[in-house]
Amino acid sequence: MSGESSFMHLVRPNVAAPASSTSTGASNIKIHAPALFQILEIVSKQVLSAEKRIIGTLVGLRSEDGLELEIRDAYVVPCNETGDSITIEDSVHKTLFQLHKKAHPKEAVLGWFGSSNQIDSTTSLIHDFYSKGAYPFPAIYLNVEYLTADNQITVPKLSTYVGATVGKPGSTQQIGWKTTTTNNSYIFTPIPNQVINGSITEKIAFKQLREKSVNTTSTALTSDLSYLSNQLEAVTTNIDNLLRFIESKGVEANSDKDLDLLRLLSNTLLNKPQLLSNTEELKNLFSAHNQDVIMIEYLTKAVKDQIELSARLTASAEADKKF
Amino acid sequence: MVNKQGNKKYQAPTATSINVESSVLLSLIRHTSENYPSLFSGTLLGFEDDEGSIDITHVYPFPYPDQYEGGSFKSRSGAKYQDEILESLKKLGYGVEFQGWFQSTVSGNFVTTQLIEGLAQQQLLNKNSFIIIHNLSSINKEVELKALRLSEGFIGAYLDGKWKSKDLESNKISYLNIFDELPINIHNQNLINLYLSNLQDSTTTVANTNEFEVVNLSSNQNVTAQLLESLYSQVDSYNYDQNNFNYYQRQNQKEVSKVTQWKQQRKLENLERAKRGESELDPEEWKSIFRFPSEPSRYNNILHSHAIDVLADDILKKCEEDLTKSLAIERKLISEN
Known about the structure:
The structure holds two protein chains of two kinds.
Chain A: E1 28-32, H1 33-43, E2 55-62, E3 68-77, E4 79-82, E5 85-88, H2 90-103, E6 108-114, H3 121-134, E7 140-147, E8 153-166, E9 172-174, E10 180-182, E11 185-191, E12 193-196, H4 200-213, E13 218-220, H5 226-248, H6 259-270, H7 279-319
Parallel strand pairs in A: 1-3, 1-12, 6-7
Antiparallel strand pairs in A: 2-3, 2-6, 4-5, 7-8, 8-11, 9-10
Chain B: E1 17-21, H1 22-34, E2 41-48, E3 53-61, H2 76-91, E4 97-105, H3 113-125, E5 130-135, E6 145-150, H4 152-160, H5 165-170, E7 179-182, E8 184-187, H6 190-197, H7 221-276, H8 286-289, H9 299-336
Parallel strand pairs in B: 1-3, 1-8, 4-5
Antiparallel strand pairs in B: 2-3, 2-4, 5-6, 6-7
């Protein structure tokens, strides 16, 4: 994935007046991991031999200034390519979006995704279709490239583009069944994207998926305390790494290279509350806290056992009924 | 979702595990955790495979949050939304069908009559229906999902509908086995596996978030308090129900002692009559004189008991977590100084 620094944004003078908003095109795209997974699942169903194009709609949020986009969901839209023209099943796209909108009222159509190795004339035909949906903002196009030139599967590469109209509206083209539309030309400008997790809980799930992804096709969920110990281990490893890093830098200790890190570390260590040096007080507080916890534990256990006792007593009392 | 009372032929479930696509897992978790503390439920779509498991390939949350767990399952708008989605997916050529619901909840609070009722109706229609419960009591720390369906015994008692102790006994259910838990397996598409295994470490970020929250000593305070509050209210409801039951037991006891007294009296009377050479009066006549109170339904009792049990388990887990952390930190700090 490309880092943000490798892009430079220039505001292009707009040739086509109607699409004047293109100058405020998106400059950063955040792809939510669930959406990405959906896209990957959809494109992986592409039938390789038939060269059938699979496209779909991207829905999500747009920041107020339109500069930042969040792709939050995606769904497939069937299309048929015949020679130079393409039929997109508009009705499916619309119903699915309406349904999505019901549950996620704030989300809008952002653009579309596909998986092809090149941008061709069909790309701009589809883009034309989605530009209307995303109006007045320019639509975005997300391409998942997962095939090499000779149809070998490789690591999926995500690239996002914002398409802006250039030149004067071109020839008239048939899109859909009845609608005739002018075929605009588009210039696709690559923009940076990053994959994000929407919430911490989702991030944790994502991490688990990652850790277990190698060599397995399915993983089971666990719900014991193993999670805590995993995290504790992770913290220990982090500290070890940090120590190793500091030790390895021992020779160039006087350089300013890692000044930020040193500052952060010394601030964290110096901000030690007074309390920490007062062992007696600390001991008291800890034992009070532990006793509280143990008390809660004790009482909860008592409730739990009472319930069981009550159930058993009732059952036996009712079973022993004489009459 | 149609309530068919006539359809009482209940078949035992055949599915033994749930396979969930990773995209479904992430979408579900994102939706429920983003909207916390609102509760949400939704539809799980997929298909049954031949090896006795259910594959879930799509998830759609219901448009509105739930006021209580299970609220959307029998609502008309929820059912309509579900049907519309199914229909449009059919148009896309996906052979998916409705398989179950998901529901976000906090610990044991999901055991509501609405949820049980909805699930029971669904299980009568489709033997392999189930529900995925997302427990948000450890939100931001841990992912707690479990797939549940009502046990065969429970459905049996549900069909009997009386919920007396002897019905519970004959169906062999108690509050501990209302649900059967199904193992959840997460399935990745190969392309996703390929993508995941090629990820660099720093590619995913969430601003200002900390997934190490679980190791923070005081991270559980609010949750434990909330869980305890839920526990109180469940115990209150439990007690309310128990009072009815206790009343019944006292009434029953009273009748029993009356009957014993009556029997004693009749015995003496009969002895005297025997001495006088008169014929005996019927010693079984009490059956027509006394009427025993009928036992109230134990339904709410077992639901509350189950909720309390789950809540208590979660609280104990949190406490254990707390103690582990606290003892570790304490030892470190005190030994250092």
